């Protein structure tokens, strides 16, 4: 039987999610807005919803299920829809290490000037 990982949406983002307009395509999920909440064995996401409801810890609107293959499904009022993790891109580090900067400056000062008078 397939195993699904459960991710519970934190309260603050859940309130925003509940009132957000419906969007087409996969929902974007930020990892910082979710907390891992274990796993559930189920035939499909609707079976997982039923199993969790009967266990006393039902899925709420905004909660995620992740399949063993890594596909995400988000619980909405109308059922489950596709979702995807979005991770902010890290800013590239454009700073050269001091030693490289010093070498670059030394190379420039050692080369003849291209400007002539």
Description:
Residues 104-117 have a biased composition (Low complexity). Residues 88-117 are annotated as: Disordered. By secondary structure, this protein is of the alpha+beta class. It has one domain (3-85). It is 28% helix and 28% strand. Strands 2-6-5-4-1-3 form a 6-stranded mixed β-sheet. A hairpin with a 2-residue loop joins strand 5 (72-76) and strand 6 (79-85).
Task: Please provide the ordered H/E string of secondary-structure elements.
Answer: EHEEHEEEH
Fraction of residues in β-strands:
25-35%
Structure classification: alpha+beta
Rg, alpha carbons: 25 Å
pLDDT < 50 runs, ≥5 residues: none
How does the overall form come out from the CA principal axes? elongated
Overall pLDDT score: 84
Number of discrete helical segments: 3
Order of strands, widest sheet: 2-6-5-4-1-3
- Count of structural domains: 1
Helix-strand blueprint:
Elements: E1 3-9, H1 11-19, E2 27-29, E3 34-41, H2 45-55, E4 64-66, E5 72-76, E6 79-85, H3 98-110
Parallel strand pairs: 2-6
Antiparallel strand pairs: 1-3, 1-4, 4-5, 5-6
């Amino acid at each position: 039987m397939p195993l699904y990982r459960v991710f519970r949406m934190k309260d603050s983002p859940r309130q925003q999610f509940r009132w957000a307009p419906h969007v087409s395509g996969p929902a974007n999920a930020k990892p910082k807005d979710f907390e891992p909440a274990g796993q559930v064995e189920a035939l499909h996401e609707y079976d997982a919803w039923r199993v969790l409801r009967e266990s006393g810890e039902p899925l709420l609107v905004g909660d995620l299920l992740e399949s063993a293959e890594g596909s995400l499904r988000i619980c909405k009022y109308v059922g489950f829809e596709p979702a995807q993790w979005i991770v902010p891109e890290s800013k590239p580090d454009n700073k050269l290490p001091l030693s490289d900067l010093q070498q670059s400056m030394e190379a420039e000062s050692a080369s003849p000037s291209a400007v002539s008078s």
